[in-house]
Amino acid sequence: MESPDATFTLAYLVFSFCFVFTPNEFRSAGLTVQNLFSSWLGSEDVGFIQYHVRRTSTTLLVHSSLPLGYYAGMCIAAPEKNLPYIHLVSAGWQAFLVLSLCLQLVSWGLVIYWSRRQWSNHPICRTLQAHAQPQRSGWGAVATSINTEFRRIDKFATGAPGARVIVTDTWVLKVATYHVHVAQQTDTHLSVTDSRQHQMSPDSATPTQILTIRVASINPAVNSFDIRLMSTEYSELREKLHAPIRSATNVVIHQTISELFLDTFKAHAELNQPYMLPSEMEVELCIGCLQVPAGTKLIRLCCEEGSDNECRQCFCRPMWCLSCLGRWFASRQNQERPETWLASCVPCPTCRSKFCILDVCLIR
Ligand SMILES: [Zn+2]
Ligand SMILES: [Zn+2]
Ligand SMILES: [Zn+2]
């Protein structure tokens, strides 16, 4: 390995990055601001708004102290640099130390400014102020309403703790690292603006589609924001909302695992060797949907002849299109355990001989 200071620098950079952006491994290890300061932050259920005012302030202070932490660590990791003796170190290190101290002082100054007049200057409380009715009254009533509704068990909540989306009877809330976005249901328009599909892979056991929904308020004092959720949670969200969600014309929302699986199924089938249609054979319409010509043929490709795999050769002529065969494949699976789908065999819809995803060939 390189010198200890290079090793420390790399390790500290990785640690800082993970601490700020919190991947799941860090979260499960408890290395988050929420966890480390949980006794001071109190309970989110008791006072949702107060909790997040404390959490965002603490997060700012902790994140802004990371450069100072690096300097302190280097004092130990590289004793030959004489870092504890500020007058002896190079100009570069002096500048780094001064900048880190400034960053820390500025964030303390900011947090002290926020805390004046019972936290009225905090960005979250200012956001609440925009919803106060009438305008001149304080944000306290809005905070109480949100706190009360957050405690109800019938709220909609999804996402990782650092990027949670919560919908209560009156409010749409999005928790971010340094802020909580708030919109009142009655004056918001929601529209699905984007969708990203993740196929089933060894890393993710189930196929997922992530929807991006824009929450825009007719109240000019409220900034619009984006929320993200899985398409399978979409209907639950719609139930909780009183207003309809508009959808951009090009976004197709897949609400069930089977629909999501279809893309994975098609992608895998395309990787298999194609079936060259004999010139004398005519292809008829798919007998499942009667919409498109049959486009698949089952050929036992998954293993050598004689091995004791469940798959058997199917001698049916091409009868099904890829979508219908994919739906059939998904419908014959254990619906509770989508992670097993790619590896399992199902019977051919016509002759009942078993096939797996490796045996699905597209017709050329
Ligand atoms: Zn079909
Ligand atoms: Zn068959
Ligand atoms: Zn097979």
TrEMBL record:
Pfam families: Tmpp129. Keywords: Membrane, Transmembrane, Transmembrane helix. It is found in: Membrane. It is a multi-pass membrane protein. Its main location: membrane. Belongs to the TMEM129 family. This is E3 ubiquitin-protein ligase TM129. It comes from Merluccius polli. The lineage of its organism: Eukaryota, Metazoa, Chordata, Craniata, Vertebrata.
